[in-house]
Amino acid sequence: MAKQKTISELKAEIVDNERQLAQLRHKQQQLENRITYYEKDDRRKRAHRLITRGAAIESIASLTKVLTETEFYAFAEKALALPEVKGLLMEAVNEHNKNEFGGD
Q: What's the rounded Cα separation, in Å, for the pair 8 and 13?
């Protein structure tokens, strides 16, 4: 037969379980904070990349400054659809991959 616990033992067990629960909640909050930090960092890096690349386009092709957003997107779609541009972009990507992954 299992030994019955006294009231003081049960109360001590409750206190211990509450402490463990508080620790687990704290650990969960730490992990959620870490996830938020990394997601925020990813968004910040993306925003930085978009800004610097947009600035590079304006620097190289200054006439794009006068275009509205819609006009710029239409221009970019047409320019990037040209076979010559697609080929140049593919060359750049291949060169990047070669340098990044140590290929030929």
A: 9
Neighbouring C-beta atoms of residue 13, cutoff 10 Å: 11
Q: For residue 60, give every residue at least 6 positions away whose Cβ sits within 8 Å of its Cβ, in sequence order, or none.
A: none
Is residue 96 over pLDDT 90?
Answer: yes
How many helices (DSSP H) and strands (DSSP E) are in the chain? 3, 0
**CA dihedral of residues 24, 25, 28, 32 (deg, nearest 10):** -170
CA 78 to chain centroid, in Å, comes to: 29
At 10-56, the pLDDT tens digits run 999 999 999 999 999 999 999 999 999 998 999 999 999 999 999 99
Residues 91 and 47: their CA atoms lie apart, in Å, by 25
Q: How far apart are CA 90 and CA 84, in angstroms?
A: 10
User: Rounded distance, CA 75 to CA 54, Å?
Assistant: 14
